[in-house]
Design a protein that fits this description.
The protein is an alpha/beta fold. Helix content is about 45%, strand content about 20%. The strands form two sheets. It has a five-stranded mixed beta sheet with strand order 2-1-3-10-4, sandwiched between helices. It has a five-stranded mixed beta sheet with strand order 7-6-8-5-9. Helix 4 (about 95-105) runs parallel beside helix 12 (about 300-315). The chain is globular and about 65 Å long.
Length: about 325
């Protein structure tokens, strides 16, 4: 009887171990969905597809890009924030939907803290541009032309609460300038209006700004990073231009995010795959061509989270003073 009891316990233990192994297989054992919060064909989608190809090689499973445009990226970001935290639904997210949307919307469906940062894949400064015929060719010119009591200068953005709006609001506040915000629906219209002279200023990422400068249709005023751009080394930084802007450093970035609650081992496996993908010639070539450099700590697992936390604190200090609704 005792022998039978021992056998029963042994079989139960064996079955338990088998069930546990089945419930907790090695990650990943099926395709991974990579959500992009914008329509196919855009810059974020391009980043997702390029990195997704290399991630698939490193993970040994397909990485399927799923585009979910709408609401300034919030629909796609919400999808991931509310997904099962198992590592199979990830977000290729940008600063707008990951950090800014939760700060600029009255009842956001998620918070920045809803995501676990796997890695920051690239960051790019933005260039302050003006029309080729405009007389304000430096930040000092802009500050003087838009001083209180003088005629306002106008700047275009893709909409209220976007990265460009927040950076320009911060710039105007520091310079005590009267800059009038003109929100657009998307980027192409405000580029056309700057070229046509209907507005005075815009911000564009480096990779978009450099071709415009080469065409001679715009002139560069300053760049938002702490150091000059390799692609346009003659353009001064905001900090170099005026002492009021000595600590200014803004960049547009994209990263890989998992739902908060994703097991640490899964997140670290994804981070390892990112680091291995980054060493490939394919990604190295893509990074060089895109104008988006991987931040120093971007692919360090703990460093990427510190990067995101610092970005959230930076914008949380700016947004409360902004007018985001009519």
């Amino acid at each position: 009887m005792k022998t039978l009891h021992r056998w029963t316990l042994a079989i139960a233990a064996l079955l338990g171990a088998t069930v546990t192994a089945m419930a907790d297989p090695a990650y990943p054992n099926r395709p991974v969905t990579l959500v992009v919060a914008y329509p196919a064909g855009g810059s974020t989608d391009t980043v997702a597809r390029k990195w997704g190809e290399e991630l698939a090689k490193q993970l040994g499973q397909p990485v399927v890009v799923e585009n979910m445009g709408g609401a300034g990226g919030m629909i796609g970001a919400k999808r991931v924030a509310q997904a099962a935290p198992d590592g199979y639904t990830l977000l290729l997210g940008a600063v707008n939907e990951v950090v800014l949307s939760p700060l600029t919307n009255r009842n956001p469906p998620y918070k920045t803290a809803s995501f676990k940062t796997v890695g920051i894949l690239g960051a790019s400064p933005v260039v302050l541009l003006t029309g080729k015929s405009k007389p304000h060719r430096s930040l000092k010119d802009i500050a003087q032309a838009s001083a209180p009591g003088k005629a306002s200068l106008t700047y275009g953005t893709p909409g209220r609460g976007t990265f460009q709006h927040i950076v320009m609001h911060s710039l105007a506040s520091r310079l005590k300038s009267d800059l009038l915000h003109v929100p657009y629906k998307g980027g192409a219209p405000f580029i056309a209006d700057l070229i046509g002279g209907q507005i005075d200023l815009i911000l564009l990422p480096t990779v978009t700004a450099v071709p415009q400068l080469s065409s001679g249709q715009m002139q560069a005023v300053a760049v938002s990073s702490s150091s000059r751009m390799d692609l346009a080394p003659t353009v001064p930084t905001f900090a170099e231009s005026m002492p009021e802007l000595r600590d200014v450093d803004f960049s547009i970035w994209v990263g890989l995010f998992a739902p908060q609650g994703t097991p640490q081992a899964v997140a670290e496996r994804l981070n390892q795959a990112l680091r291995e993908a980054h060493r490939s010639e394919s990604i190295q070539s893509f990074v060089r061509a895109s104008g988006m450099a991987v931040p120093a700590a971007g692919l360090d697992f703990a460093g990427a989270q510190r990067f995101l936390d610092a970005e959230e604190r930076k914008y949380r200090a700016i947004v409360p003073g902004m007018k985001l609704e009519d």
